[in-house]
Amino acid sequence: MANDMKRAEGHSSGSVPNGGVSFWYSSTGLPDYRPPLPGDREADVCIVGAGLTGLWTAYYLKREQPDLRIVMLDKEFAGFGASGRNGGWLSSELAGSRPGYAKTHGRQGVADLLRAMREAVDEVIAVADAEGIDADIVKDGLLYVARNKAQVARLHESLTFERDWGAGPDDFIFLNREELDARVVVEGVLAGMYSPHCARVQPAKLVQGLAAVVERMGVTIYEQTTVTEISPRTARTDRGTVRAPIVLRCLEGFTATIKGQRRNWLPMNSSLIVTDPLPADVKAQIGWNGAELLGDFAHAYMYAQRTADDRIALGGRGIPYRYGSRTDDRGATQQWTIEALTALLHDMFPAVRDVPVAHAWCGVLGVPRDWCATVDLDQATGLGTAGGYVGSGLTTTNLAGRTLADLVLRRDTELTRLPWVGRRVRPWEPEPLRWLGVQAMYALYRSADRREYARDLPSTSRIARVANMITGR
């Protein structure tokens, strides 16, 4: 009981319950811990990290080869990290630079990857339906709003960019203010963009449902087990050692906790708040009767969903990065972040000002130095990985899991030929350079947003262009 209390604890920032993993778990209840690794074990495949990347990989491996002995290891519980804390965007958005992917596989390779991402949205929905996973999934698409002239300019640039990369007329659709208001009323909106390739999800329900499915398929999940080192055919933990021909690192934002991995993927923080259920009069003013996801064209961007029980969950960056790649893994965010997100919520939806914020939390996502996602398996060493989703992981985990499964099974498929497979990325700079760089980057983005609003700039601020140079995007 004491252990359950410790892992569930959050605290109040002001009057807002804060942390305790996430609101999604406060609404479903935290799962009971599975037993830890009981000592040394052998397996055919060892998966380090029981989030969605690892779970999807295990699911497709077991579906294709049921006799595989698969062991999963997690420091906390399956779905403790970003998989159970994210904003619930089952989106086809692809992390990273398309020209970067095209350097190795050409434009057609990128077009194939974009198509695979769109198909992955429907694949997740189909598996959830087939396996009886009730995760509040509704595919009503994604809305992006522009609230000043510079954002409108970026909206049009984005439409042109998507069409240049093969998008059809129905994949991304321009919306004027009246068309946006018919879907959701956002204060100060000038124009918007709609894509049908996105669904709303309750993240904790999805990841917990998938964990239960793979367990029924015969996958062994050991929780409360800290992996300290990964080497060829070996995962060393505080509970014993697992030896397997294939060892897959599926830790995303927690990759830096493994010996020798501190500079590989930077753990970027993202924070969310969620309101109480909206009263009927507030709902009438906002509209938002569908389940569209909502984003914007600010540099320090926001993301939001209307939940199945009529709350608004809204997220954005708080403290983007903690010195030395540390992570706040209990989910508590900072008071100023809660206040900033609440102010943004009220600015976008004035009718919500009297609706209390019910919960706040945060999590970490993995960011490679070139901001592009990766799937990789070295057949010589048996070491594999997938991640670096840069906040677009809810759908990407499924595609990555299917791809890793094909690589493990040594299959030459359309998935294993996609341009994100086998990429090599240089590590992040040592401290204090990476801390200074990330802090400067987001300070510049926030400054650019303020300047674009204050000066009514017709195009993107030069400050933001400097930030883009720092990021290497």
Automatic annotation (TrEMBL):
<dbReference type="InterPro" id="IPR036188">
    <property type="entry name" value="FAD/NAD-bd_sf"/>
</dbReference>
<dbReference type="Pfam" id="PF01266">
    <property type="entry name" value="DAO"/>
</dbReference>
<protein>
    <submittedName>
        <fullName>FAD-dependent oxidoreductase</fullName>
    </submittedName>
</protein>
<feature type="domain" description="FAD dependent oxidoreductase">
    <location>
        <begin position="44"/>
        <end position="407"/>
    </location>
</feature>
<dbReference type="InterPro" id="IPR006076">
    <property type="entry name" value="FAD-dep_OxRdtase"/>
</dbReference>
<dbReference type="GO" id="GO:0005737">
    <property type="term" value="C:cytoplasm"/>
</dbReference>
